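Class, study these two lines:
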Amino acid sequence: MSDTPLISVRGEAVLEVEPEIARLSVYVQSQENDRRAALDRLVERNQQCLDLVRSYGDAVEKLETGGLSITPLLRHRRREGDVRAYQGTTWIKVTVSDFAVLGELVTRLGDLERTAVNGPEWALRRDSEVYARAARQAAHEAVARARSYAEALGARLTGLVELADEGLTSTDAGGPVTLAAAYGAVPGSAPDQPEAIDLQPASQIVRAAVEARFTATAPALD
């Protein structure tokens, strides 16, 4: 076994940054007595929703359909085959990168008939440079801590034995925010565009930690 002194430390970095994207979940529904009518109405409302989102151009980073369903609704005192209506639902996932239009988009989506909006969910992109910056700061902290220990013992660092990534995570410092609109505008109401809701981005907390071992010169313990 080597007699070379080893110093083991943990370096950690915590960054608070602004979010880069906001995610919305939009649920579009239809309900009709006939299955085909429910599907046709769902297709119509789904297209209306997609056209609205696409009208914001590059402000919308990603637009996806998460799922579609047509479900029979049975009567309370049901007999086999006793269907009172058919309900259709589509799930649309929207990723917005321009927060200047987010409030307006949310209220316009919520104003659509039989449309529910959940969000925004604030986040960083998967490839955000913030994660790399946090990892670098954690490594620098490990080096500084090891050097401080060595100096306290009258020694100095001579090499790196191991550096391991303990974890890299991000959390929403403001907690989840949920907005919902169930049925949108009432038929016959004024066609004016609804006033945009004021949404404040929630800070993201990014944490990184590393564990490192360094070799050092013999300490001056006397």
Summary: Residues 174-190 have pLDDT under 50 and may be disordered. The beta strands are 6-17, 21-32, 60-74, 83-96, 115-123, 157-172, 204-216. The first strand starts at residue 6 and ends at 17.
